[in-house]
Amino acid sequence: MKASRNFGKRIKDIRMALNMTQEEFANEIGVEKSHISRMECGRKGISLTRMKQICERFDVPMDYFSMSDEAYNAMREKMMKGIIIDISKMRTFHVGMVRRFIEGLKG
To answer: For labelling, which of 12, 20, 52, 79 has a CA lying 20 to 30 Å from the CA of 63?
Structure first.
């Protein structure tokens, strides 16, 4: 997968985990909605500064962007197995991922 597409997929995953529209996400980081759309589609890359801003704003680990799909899936699987742990201690981003996973199970 092309790097910008992979970053775009991760941006979309973060936004969806937070249950935000592209416009809401764009407003949070100070860009236009079209900027988010182009990033998610892989037509626009992401600067290190913007990546850091997103990570700090939404409490996402920086290595999330450089993880292979296998590492991402392993992290997600580990997180899902650990759902019994105290959710209040989880990162906001991870809580959103759990919510999306549960909603997916409901169909």
So the answer is: 20
Q: What are the start-end ranges of the H helices in 30-106?
A: 33-40, 48-58, 69-81, 92-106
Mean pLDDT of the chain: 82
Number of domains in the chain: 1
Q: Which residues contact 91 (CB under 8 A, 6 or more apart)?
A: 59, 60, 61
**Angle in degrees, CA 76, 20, 94, rounded to 5:** 25
Could you give the CA distance from residue 27 to residue 44 in angstroms, rounded to a whole number? 18
Smallest CA-to-CA distance from 94 within 107, 106, 83, 105 is with: 83
Interatomic CA distance for residues 99 and 79, integer angstroms: 12
Q: How much is the pTM?
A: 0.67
pLDDT tens-digit readout, 36-60: 999 999 898 888 999 999 999 998 8
Specify the CATH number for the domain of residue 11.
Answer: 1.10.260.40
